[in-house]
Amino acid sequence: MQSDLTASESASSFDARNALRGQIASLRARVRIMKAAAAVREGDAERLSFHVRQENIRRTNSRTRNNKLFAHGSVAEKGGYVDLDDLAILGLEHHGPLYAYWMAISAAEVVGGRGAYLAHIFACPKRLVWCHSEGARVAWAWAKALRDEQTAEFEARDRAGKLSDWRKLPVSGRQHYLIAIICRRLAIDEPRRLRRGTAYDWIKLKGGHPAFWQPPERMPDWSA
Are residues 141 and 95 part of one domain? Predict the structure, then answer.
């Protein structure tokens, strides 16, 4: 009888454990479902927030910088010159009188709008190379000025002691990349045991990003 009782207790214990496992599995499933539902709600909220912001922009007629950049890009596509060399267009427009002169000649020689006129101008390889080179120079100068402004703001914060925690962080991936490029350009060994702050100081001491070491040469004035 004792054996029968022990067997009955074992069976009851086994059933209880199975029931408990079932309850735990059910709870885990409910948690997964709730997490999935929360993720869906969060995604819906983000999409709704985006549409609310866009509607507010449309209603107030105020567009962000990205909105404006996208709008100008769509104009280039509609105008038929989105596939043309963007640096060449920039270089040509930088020289206003030459731009006006060449566009006027193109308007007299081809039918179409701005895209057709630009394509006609750049059909001449010599013009295309000249305009592209000037566009690269203008783009470099713009990027360099922006970088210098951002660097000045960053270093002002550093001098004020607002980056003390940042300086103690490990070297960033971008810093690793820049250090490797600089060392290859200068044929020197890579520095060791740097932190993010000392890596910044080292990169600055070596001249910063190599792309800004030397400005592109200005093309000679155009001559046909």
Answer: yes
**What is d(CA 134, CA 127) in angstroms, rounded to the nearest whole number?**
11
Q: Which two tokens stand for residue 208?
A: 């910063």
Tokens 């890579």, located at residue: 190
Let me know: does 206 contact 186? Beta carbons within 8 Å. yes
**Nearest CA-CA partner of 80 in 41, 117, 36, 115:** 115
Domain membership of residue 192 (yes or no) is: yes
List of residues 6+ apart from 136 with CB closer than 8 A: 87, 91, 216
| Confidence check: pLDDT of 5 > 50 | no
pLDDT in tens, 55-78: 665 656 667 878 787 788 788 888
Residue 140 placed within a domain:
yes
pTM score, whole prediction: 0.68
Which residue range(s) make up the domain with 167?
163-224
Residue showing tokens 């990169």? 203
